[in-house]
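Possible regression after last week's pipeline update?

I re-ran a chain I had predicted before the update to compare outputs. Posting the input and the new output here so someone can diff against the archived version. Not blocking, just want to make sure nothing changed silently.
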Amino acid sequence: MRKFATKLDEDFARREFPIVGLVDGWFFRCREVAVGGVYRVEGTDLWGTKVSAEGTDREGLLRDCAESARQMKGHVKEVLFGDSGSFLRLDGDKLILNVLCGRAGQWGVEFALNDSEREQYKRQGDSFIKELAEAVYRNPSAYKSRAKGAARHGILRRLLAGAREWRGERGIAGS
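New output (post-update):
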């Protein structure tokens, strides 16, 4: 069973990432990582989304990280729930759940909550989303047909089958 993380505490984020005001909702820090003025700039939002850059121009690195954070912020809609590899976001009128699955090789399963799930979420709140995310993590194939881009899975399955056949014909070990 996965251990769920919580949203970062804003006071903690401000202590660890004291540069604020570059991008709304983001916190940055700059540290010298090598003699001779090599710096690493890192930024995070409260949900643990991170950006970073290394180089010798501190101000340029801060600008680059801030721009990356702005671009990421533009792609993410309002996040309603976030836990270790699971995010529920509002995209228009849809509630979209994204769950990071796998152990060695990881992939995301993302789908819109159906009417029944939306009702359960209204009644039970975040605890329902935690349970649903665990169910997806334990059995992602059960949710594959609902996943965004599900049509691509058929193509991928055929490509993998072809690769296995090619390996078998050549006597190459592997699955």
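Follow-up from reviewer: compared with the archived run. Strands lie at 26-34, 38-45, 50-55, 78-83, 86-91, 94-101, 107-112. Marking as no regression found.
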